[in-house]
């Protein structure tokens, strides 16, 4: 687990600042009480070592990778040495009066290091060692000594426990993110399968049934494979992730069932990292039964988003071609309207077919027919946009696709 992913790295930085500040505090206490020490030079020598150690190890403490358990053990040893040296260089009267040890509150930094690095159990063990050293230096269980020891112990255990909980939460979050990434990739693959393989199998089934003979048997086998593949796709994709398919054949055009709309040259199409004029992609869908209305100026989107939007439009038109028929049986007329709004690109696909009966989309999803769910709504959701479908029986269907520009 990278330290930068969690609360750990700020804690290490805080510990670094704590060590430097408390080192300065210990030096200030020594300077203030210099004349009261029995051996001021001995105390000064220890504090000099403490200052050099603290400043020389600033980088070690600022990173979880560099602050290893052996280093923390040496850090704790420095603190314990200062505590046990206090009765040697200070007067018993000052010690009995609750005077600070040589390292003073710098000692807590060593214990907190164990709490952050190894958790509350190691922090508790380090606290016990510090407590034992303080009791030994004070010559007994003085009230101030017990108070200070309990304060350090409780604080370090609490911080160690919080760090352990944070680490567990991060592992859960990382696992959830991996699952989400895998789910999105599975949805993308399912979308591609729906836009190509399933449509081809469905076409083979229809053509085989129409031709008859040996072709009818081939169509029957294709239908069985289509049903099995639809079951596999629908069982591996969450319903809310589904969306209508894209890149399907277009009414009035000669595109094959799995075709992706033709794209213009480099300037119109754009590279994956560049901009693309949506008009150039959608104009490929215009035909004898598809009318396309567009603004006079270019309508730009990132190239990948523009292609996904065009694929979703293709899926909507394929639904018109497959399901919408006029009273005499001819294909319904479809209209595409492209609008360039200040913060979004909106494409409306409307037809004059019989509309979608209530509950038909839900039944289709249950049967594994994920056209609207995968190829339209799923694509728009992945783009951060929305797909709204309005259908009134006898009055046609309208699909509004909205993609934010940013």
Description:
The protein is of the alpha+beta class. The protein has two domains: 3-173, no CATH class; 240-404, Histidine kinase-like ATPase, C-terminal domain (Heat Shock Protein 90, 2-Layer Sandwich). Helices cover 60% and strands 10% of the residues. The chain has 14 helices and seven strands. The chain has helices at 8-32, 40-56, 58-61, 69-89, 92-96, 107-118, 120-138, 143-211, 214-235, 266-269, 278-282, 303-323, 360-366, 371-382, and strands at 275-277, 290-293, 300-302, 334-340, 344-351, 386-391, 397-404. The protein has a five-stranded mixed sheet with strand order 2-4-5-7-6. A hairpin with a 3-residue loop joins strand 4 (334-340) and strand 5 (344-351). Helix 6 packs parallel to helix 8. The longest helix has 69 residues, at 143-211. The chain is elongated, with a radius of gyration of 36 Å. It starts with 7 loop residues before the first helix and ends with a strand.
């Amino acid at each position: 687990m990278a330290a930068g992913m969690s609360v750990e790295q700020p804690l290490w930085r805080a510990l670094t600042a704590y060590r430097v500040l408390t080192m300065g505090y210990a030096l200030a206490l020594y300077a203030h009480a210099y004349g009261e020490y029995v051996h001021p030079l001995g105390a000064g020598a220890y504090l000099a070592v403490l200052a050099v150690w603290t400043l020389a190890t600033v980088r070690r403490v600022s990173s979880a990778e560099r602050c290893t358990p052996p280093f923390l053990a040496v850090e704790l040893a420095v603190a314990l040495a200062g505590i046990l040296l206090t009765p040697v260089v200070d007067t018993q009267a000052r010690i009995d009066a609750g005077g600070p040890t040589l390292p003073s509150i710098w000692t807590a930094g060593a214990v907190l290091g164990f709490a952050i690095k190894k958790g509350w159990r190691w922090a508790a063990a380090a606290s016990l060692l510090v407590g034992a050293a303080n009791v030994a230096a004070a010559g007994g269980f003085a009230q101030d000594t017990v108070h200070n020891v309990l304060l350090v112990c409780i604080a370090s255990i609490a911080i160690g426990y919080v760090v352990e909980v944070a680490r567990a939460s991060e592992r859960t979050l990382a696992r959830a993110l991996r699952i989400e990434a895998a789910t999105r990739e599975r949805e993308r693959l399912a979308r591609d399968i729906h836009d190509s393989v399933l449509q081809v199998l469905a076409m083979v089934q229809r053509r085989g049934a129409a031709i008859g003979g040996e072709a009818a048997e081939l169509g029957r086998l294709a239908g069985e494979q289509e049903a099995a593949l639809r079951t596999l796709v629908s069982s591996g994709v969450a319903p809310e992730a589904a969306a209508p398919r894209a890149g399907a054949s277009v009414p009035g055009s000669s595109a094959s069932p799995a075709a992706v709309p033709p794209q213009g040259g480099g300037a119109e199409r754009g590279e994956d990292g560049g901009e693309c004029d949506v008009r150039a992609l959608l104009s490929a869908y215009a035909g004898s039964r598809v009318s396309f209305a567009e603004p006079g100026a270019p309508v730009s989107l990132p190239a990948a988003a523009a292609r996904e939007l065009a694929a979703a439009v293709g899926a909507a038109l394929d639904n018109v071609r497959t399901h919408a028929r006029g009273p005499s049986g001819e294909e319904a007329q479809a209209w595409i309207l492209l609008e360039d709004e200040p913060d979004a690109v909106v494409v409306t696909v409307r037809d004059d077919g019989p509309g979608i009966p209530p509950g038909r989309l839900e039944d289709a999803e249950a049967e594994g027919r994920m056209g609207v769910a995968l190829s339209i709504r799923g694509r728009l959701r992945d783009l951060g946009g929305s797909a709204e479908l309005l259908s009134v029986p006898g009055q046609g269907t309208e699909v509004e696709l909205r993609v934010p520009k940013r």
